[in-house]
């Protein structure tokens, strides 16, 4: 199989950032795309570790799974294995901000408005991009609502990626919760490949094909 002996890391799902013991800030990521990718990469022979945020998805027995909750936990899980991985695909919808202070007790309802101060989380993908060796392949995702191609290309360069997979929320049937997705892939040469609307399993196969093309 083409990926025999390759160590692959995939992130999937959302992250939850605690506000207090019962509340969190999250997002609508279902984890479907990342789980489908982990599956397809394993079918190609890779030794896959899936780092998953909170999701209802079931992973297959031949995928090693590490469950995490917050962006910080995902960062720690990713950085602990990144140096040993040949291919990394960052599909997770990681929170960009988290509450600066996590209340130790449930915050009580009050008369006035509640103000939460948020601080930035670490950009995991950019962190890995900085530490990437020449032989490693790093793939990121971009989900945009406007000027999407330029933002996607910007991410490819800024985060030192080999491929960026763009999915636009402007496309019907694409995005977070759907079983289908419509993607555009940019490679390092900024060459663009457009794909039709497909099931996330078929999309995962297309992404694998693009990865196989650039394997060094
Ligand atoms: O910059 P933006 O968040 O749009 O980039 C999306 C890409 O970066 C995705 O591949 C996502 O998994 C990754 N990301 C990350 N850590 C963050 C934010 C995004 O790994 N804190």
Automatic annotation (TrEMBL):
Top-level lineage group: Bacteria
Q: Which GO terms describe its molecular function?
A: FMN binding; metal ion binding; phosphopantothenate--cysteine ligase activity; phosphopantothenoylcysteine decarboxylase activity
Key words, A-Z = Decarboxylase, Flavoprotein, FMN, Ligase, Lyase, Magnesium, Metal-binding, Multifunctional enzyme
Reaction catalysed by this enzyme: N-[(R)-4-phosphopantothenoyl]-L-cysteine + H(+) = (R)-4'-phosphopantetheine + CO2; (R)-4'-phosphopantothenate + L-cysteine + CTP = N-[(R)-4-phosphopantothenoyl]-L-cysteine + CMP + diphosphate + H(+)
Entry's Gene Ontology cellular component terms: phosphopantothenoylcysteine decarboxylase complex
Q: What is its EC number?
A: 4.1.1.36, 6.3.2.5
* Pathway terms, separated by semicolons: Cofactor biosynthesis; coenzyme A biosynthesis; CoA from (R)-pantothenate: step 3/5; Cofactor biosynthesis; coenzyme A biosynthesis; CoA from (R)-pantothenate: step 2/5
Q: Which residues form the DNA/pantothenate metabolism flavoprotein C-terminal domain?
A: 3-213
What is the name of this protein? Coenzyme A biosynthesis bifunctional protein CoaBC
Covered range of the whole protein: 183 to 398 of 398
Residues that bind CTP, according to the entry? 96, 106, 141, 155, 159
- Function comment: Catalyzes two sequential steps in the biosynthesis of coenzyme A. In the first step cysteine is conjugated to 4'-phosphopantothenate to form 4-phosphopantothenoylcysteine. In the second step the latter compound is decarboxylated to form 4'-phosphopantotheine.
Similarity section: In the C-terminal section; belongs to the PPC synthetase family.
Region annotation (Phosphopantothenate--cysteine ligase) maps to 8-216
């Amino acid at each position: 199989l083409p990926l025999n002996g390759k160590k692959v890391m995939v992130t999937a799902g959302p992250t939850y950032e605690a506000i207090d013991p019962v509340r969190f800030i999250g997002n609508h990521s279902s984890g479907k795309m990342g789980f489908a990718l982990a599956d397809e990469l394993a079918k190609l022979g890779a030794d896959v570790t899936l780092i998953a945020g909170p999701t209802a998805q079931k992973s297959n027995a031949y995928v090693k799974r590490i469950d995490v909750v917050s962006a910080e936990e995902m960062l720690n899980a990713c950085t602990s294995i990144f140096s040993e991985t040949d291919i990394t695909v960052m599909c997770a919808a990681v929170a960009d901000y988290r509450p600066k202070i996590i209340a130790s007790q449930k915050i009580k309802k009050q008369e006035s408005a509640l103000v939460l101060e948020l601080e930035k989380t670490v950009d995991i993908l950019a962190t890995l991009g900085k530490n990437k060796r020449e032989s490693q392949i790093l793939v990121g995702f971009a989900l945009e609502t406007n000027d999407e191609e330029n933002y996607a290309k910007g991410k490819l360069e800024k985060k030192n990626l080999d491929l960026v997979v763009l999915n636009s929320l402007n496309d019907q049937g694409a995005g977070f919760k759907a079983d289908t997705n419509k993607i555009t892939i940019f490679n390092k040469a900024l060459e663009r490949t457009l794909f039709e609307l497909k099931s996330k399993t078929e999309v995962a196969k297309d992404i694998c094909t693009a990865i196989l093309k650039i394997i060094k």
